[in-house]
């Protein structure tokens, strides 16, 4: 078993063990990848305030997200094609999250279906929905999520059309991979991945295949989104989905104060300040940078979560200290999954927890619920001064 000390160790292994097209899919931003990069580099600009000679015993990172108890304020974000990073990847990730006590969110664009994950877990998970043109499919998938006992619906608002990721185009991303000479050569060096994949029946988008009418080329995320995602999604449709679902609703992809207010108006339970991991609108501000203005706009009316750029427990601590009630990791657990399957996801969670817990203690806090902005040094110009249009 390799020694894993940080998320970067898992990333290196993931790169070696998973097929290039899937590693690249995870490790991509759109166009120039500026937003993807700044999601992480903006975290580095915020520093922590050291405190000494305070009792650091009996620490706790336990808190709640949308009223659910969590072992730490870090949930697993919805990630498409997770079951291509490692066979049955969504089941493995959900099981690791469940054992650790943090929420797992299943993507609409997952390989394992809602039913597959429900069958292999015992606690409720969250389901992420993309709004499709086909309302019957949307209603049906909401019904399936209810039947599976999902405890929250995470509605993603920033991917009705797909941002262009150059690497996916070059690699011909598809699930399962098409057998071209290039992919076959790459797969020949990923024998462990291939053997596991041969041993599972879950190799395509099982939330969709067999459930959606007129399924076109579902193998390709790009053509599927172009054909099926509803580019006319608006707040009225969001209200319709909220009513249809009837349970806890999290709106993901909020990066603007006015949109945050609209999310409050529709009665969402939480918002996720997110730029989709820098995979959609390149040139958007980083999530951590947009967190404070959005908190100022709606922080007293709705739970505010964030994702984008979290690669360490310190990053999560900074987001919580700024006021986020919860954070999400995507790549940080996907690296673990691609590196070592379920054990790798568990290892990622352990690494993040330790970094969060120890850093919190160095800042003189014993309880994550007592962490506030006063443990941070935030540069004066952190949010930037932008001229309104
Ligand atoms: C899907 O969620 C993607 O970002 O590829």
TrEMBL record:
Q: Which SUPFAM superfamilies match?
A: FMN-linked oxidoreductases
Q: Which Pfam families match?
A: FMN_dh
GO terms for CC?
plasma membrane
Q: Where is the FMN hydroxy acid dehydrogenase domain?
A: 1-381
Biological process GO annotation list?
aerobic respiration
GO terms of molecular function: FMN binding; L-lactate dehydrogenase (NAD+) activity
Protein name from the UniProt record: Lactate dehydrogenase
What is the organism of origin for this protein?
Oceanicola granulosus (strain ATCC BAA-861 / DSM 15982 / KCTC 12143 / HTCC2516)
